[in-house]
Design goal:
Layout: E1 2-6, H1 17-25, E2 28-31, H2 43-50, E3 54-56, H3 59-63, H4 67-75, E4 78-82, H5 90-101, E5 106-109, H6 114-122, E6 133-135, H7 138-141, H8 148-159, E7 164-168, E8 170-172, E9 185-187, H9 190-201, E10 205-210, E11 218-223, H10 224-227, E12 237-241, H11 247-257, H12 261-264
Parallel strand pairs: 1-4, 1-5, 2-3, 2-4, 6-7
Antiparallel strand pairs: 7-12, 8-9, 10-11, 10-12
Amino acid sequence: MLTFVGLGLYDASSVTVEGRNRILSADRVFAEFYTSQLVGATVSELEAAHDVEIEVRDRAGVEQDPEPILSAAETEDVVFLTAGDTMISTTHVDLRIRAEERGVETRVIHGVTAETAASGLTGLQNYRFGKAVTLPFPFVHGGDDVPQSMIDSIEANRERGLHTIVYLDIKVDYVPRRGGPDEHEEFMTADYAAALLASGWKDELAVVVARAGSPEPVVRADTLSVLATEEFGEPLHLLVIPGDVHHIEADALVSLAGAPRSLVE
């Protein structure tokens, strides 16, 4: 049996009760944190909170060498942990397909996603979001500051009046060039992302969501050029580029995110 458990957004307490029960009953627990991370808890803290030993796999250990996970799941009750919701990444879908093809029973226990949290925290209605995009570090992809494909996706959403979630890059296991939290990982911040996007949309409204799922998330709305000058604390951050704003959404951005009224009318 292979059960995929989403841990939610922030720390060891973010997982659902059902997810925690599956962790506690598992024979072995694997995890990956390269697609996303719980910034409110270390692996050691997760192990202590759930009284388990967690075997963390890197990207290659999931995508290229999943045999230890799959072989264990053939004879044992195995849990595979990820931050957020476990089936957001194609990597996890691929692992589930491989398990099913080997005759291993699988189950999915969902966790809270950044997308639902962004809608709930900002007051922007969830059915008014279009295609999401990811903003990579320019020095990683070696191209323009903002990839043209991302610009095209945002503009396509805007033409339809839809909001766009902009996920911000996370790089793990390399020495950062901008100075990340340690020598192995770097999180793009919302002010850095806003500065990149402001080159094309200087006076456009955007919303920062920082540390969704934590006890004290930050939600801040203003123009991209203004947001580029502010600081939003510890990761994880994301941006939302609103499309057409309903009057209730406008009220929410003013009340919940400090947006200037003139920007949302």
